[in-house]
From TrEMBL:
Annotated protein name in UniProt: Glutamate racemase
Sequence positions that bind substrate: D7, S8, Y39, G40, N71, T72, T183, H184
Source taxonomy: Bacteria, Bacillati, Bacillota, Negativicutes, Selenomonadales
Entry keywords, A to Z: Cell shape, Cell wall biogenesis/degradation, Isomerase, Peptidoglycan synthesis
Origin: domain of life: Bacteria
Keyword Isomerase: yes
């Protein structure tokens, strides 16, 4: 069983972490396009090309399926990619639907945190409209968290100060749920949870994505491998690939879920 994961950086490690729990015994290839990070500040055309480069690589190594472990890439590129490649491509979607259902019962609002490009996409706004949740869903772009993640900085005073400034205008008690609409954001769980009340529930689409992946592989009859193997492919012309850093973050996240 050969599974590819694609992300602009290390955020997809949060998705890979759940895959290791739900789908053990697989040969994983994690493709991190660090060279072009952050995607949330790029044009749609640029993002489409970056993702296609990653899918071309996955095609060459004959994967059984690919998870685009990046909300921005999914929103911008996944539709056309599914028509181009023979292997299944599973994308990410902000977990707005369960968050809205939860908050309707509680009489609270939902706050969606994502990149600016994700929040600008028509696909996202159509989702909110279909749910009839326009008046109860607020959004906020927290693109700088991706920059912090690139520096492997998750629980520092700079992160807390940034979040404090961004959340200062909000009436925090109004929000019953926060949707983490970028796969980098669960790496900041500790800092984010301290910014809201203890009753606030956090949602992300990771588990649903991996369950969908498992269903697809099962229907295809893909045979599991004998153990877990993880290969990292890092596109960065300035720094050499550093598997040790990625493995360390992955292990830290695994211990937190």
């Amino acid at each position: 069983m050969k599974i590819g994961f694609f992300d602009s950086g290390i955020g997809g490690l949060t998705v890979l972490g759940h895959a290791l729990k739900i789908l053990p015994f697989a040969d994983y290839t994690y493709y991190a396009d660090i060279e072009h990070l952050p995607y949330g500040e790029k044009t749609k055309g640029e993002v489409k090309q970056y993702v296609q480069n990653g899918m071309d690589y996955m095609d060459k190594i004959n994967v059984d399926a690919v998870v685009i472990a990046c909300n921005t890439s999914t929103n911008v590129a996944v539709g056309k990619l599914r028509k181009k490649y023979s292997f299944p491509i599973i994308g990410m979607e902000p977990a707005v639907k369960p968050a809205v259902a939860y908050c309707k019962e509680k009489g609270k609002k939902v706050l969606v945190l994502a990149t600016s490009l994700t929040l600008r996409e028509e696909k996202f706004h159509q989702l909110i409209h279909r749910l009839g949740a326009t008046d109860m869903v607020d959004t906020m772009a927290l693109g700088r968290l991706v920059d912090f993640a690139r520096q492997f900085e998750f629980d520092t005073s700079a992160v807390y100060q940034y979040l404090q400034r961004e959340f200062a205008p909000l009436a925090i008690a109004d929000y019953g749920a926060v949707v983490l609409g970028c796969t980098h954001f669960p790496l900041f769980n500790k800092a984010l949870q301290k910014s809201f009340t203890t009753e606030t529930v956090f949602f992300n689409g990771t588990v649903g994505t991996i369950n969908h992946l498992a269903d697809i592989l099962n229907k295809k009859g893909v045979v599991p491998s004998t153990d877990d193997k993880i290969k990292f492919v890092i596109t960065d012309g300035k720094l050499p690939p550093n598997d040790v850093d990625y493995k360390k973050i992955l292990q830290t996240y695994l211990h937190s879920i």
